[in-house]
Amino acid sequence: xxxxxxxxxxxxxxxxxxxxxxxxxxxxxxxxxxxxxxxxxxxxxxxxxxxxxxxxxxxxxxxxxxxxxxxxxxxxxxxxxxxxxxxxxxxxxxxxxxxxxxxxxxxxxxxxxxxxxxxxxxxxxxxxxxxxxxxxxxxxxxxxxxxxxxxxxxxxxxxxxxxxxxxxxxxxxxxxxxxxxxxxxxxxxxxxxxxxxxxxxxxxxxxxxxxxxxxxxxxxxxxxxxxxxxxxxxxxxxxxxxxxxxxxx
Length: 249
Description:
The protein is α+β, with helices and mostly antiparallel strands. The protein has two domains: 98 residues, Alpha-Beta Plaits, CATH 3.30.70; 118 residues, Alpha-Beta Plaits (2-Layer Sandwich), CATH 3.30.70.100. The chain is 43% helix and 29% strand. The chain contains seven helices and eight strands, in the order H-E-H-E-E-H-H-E-E-H-E-E-H-H-E. It has an eight-stranded antiparallel β-barrel with strand order 1-3-2-8-5-7-6-4, surrounded by four helices. Strand 2 and strand 3 form a beta hairpin. Helix 2 packs antiparallel against helix 4 and helix 5 packs antiparallel against helix 7. It is globular. It starts with a helix and ends in a 7-residue tail after the last strand.
């Protein structure tokens, strides 16, 4: 009887952990460029109204960030939904909400506050830790990799088998890894992910040490030999702080 109870306890814990890490949500990365000098107005609208209206209509506010170096006055944020159909229904309800229409009208009494909106739909990779916990006082780094033609799978394998563990050894915290869901948005060649660091300087120092690590050099060379060349054509990095109203800190 005791052994059966131990087995059930272990099995239950494992099931709980699997449930915690399993992630079939539809994520949406949205990037807003404010009109010149209007970023604070945009942030105020999100802080006082938009985030609550999103929640009202079934959207989950995952996190909101502004870049440390932000001359273009950008806001990055992530929403999640049960699936793509739920996303469309939520946004339709949000845009039709008379409260939102009033808020938008009042906030733009002196002119538009948003110059441009970009978005991409994302799904987590099979190796993503889905570590969406706050790292208070840390800086967040959003990284975007463009894979060479036909090499996204090789790039993902390298992250799955080696890179994430090496990041950990150099004090970098992996939060979540995504690929786009739509071909038109790069589902065959793009990887997005978040890391956190104690500071921007600490993040850059960690990457400098990582790139010089003999194990990383060996892994990179072997993976590139197998793929017939470099696995990436472009790597983009943005260091950001969470906004004061972001659920993730």
